[in-house]
Every structure is written in structure tokens, then in C-alpha cells.
Amino acid sequence: MKVLEKQDAEKFKPFKKHTISPCPATYCTNIVCYLKEENIQIQVTDVNGKILKTINVVTQQYNVTINFDLLDGVYFVNIINESGEKTVKKLVVAN
Which of 85, 77, 81, 86 has its CA nearest to residue 39? Predict the structure, then answer.
């Protein structure tokens, strides 16, 4: 039983997530990562799941600042790192 418990613990082990700020955003959004330099893919979707933008970036000094150039509204930012780990954050834009 202990081996099975250990496997389950590894399977559901949480990983550090990315954060975005500010929210609500006006023009630029800052994405903070947990690695100093990291290749990430950023997908912005509307509330219906339609992909509006896809951006590939390399973070520098744990973060990257991006101007998504979006209209006022609610969006979802999907951040996918090199390992395939995905973080989804809600982004409110209010210009």
C-alpha cells in the first residue's frame, strides 16, 4: 500500500504556477514565472474558448511584460511551459 500511496503523491504533486498582474489590466500585463529564464507559450482566449492570440516568449529575470492589445472584457491566459505544464489565469481588461 505504501508504494501505491507514494505513486499517487507524485502523480498529483503540485507545481509552482505562473502569475499575471495587474488585473484588471489597462495596456500591459506582467507574467511572473518560477524560473529565471523559461520558454513559454501564451494563448489568450475569449470566454467561449476561441484562441485570439498565441505568443512564444522567453522570460528574462523571472518575468515578461506583454501588451496583448485587447478590447475591454474578460479573457483567459493559458501559459504553457517547456515541460507542458499549463497554468490558466483570468485576465480582465479595462482601458
Answer: 81
Q: Which of 19-22's residues contact partners 24+ apart within 8 Å by CB, and which partners?
A: 19/89, 20/77, 20/89, 20/91
Cα gap 1→8, rounded to integer Å: 11
At 13-56, the pLDDT tens digits run 455 578 888 878 887 888 888 777 888 999 999 999 999 999 99
Provide the sign of the torsion angle of the four alpha carbons 8, 80, 19, 35, taken in this order: positive
Sheet containing 19-21: which strands, arranged edge to edge?
19-21, 29-32, 63-66
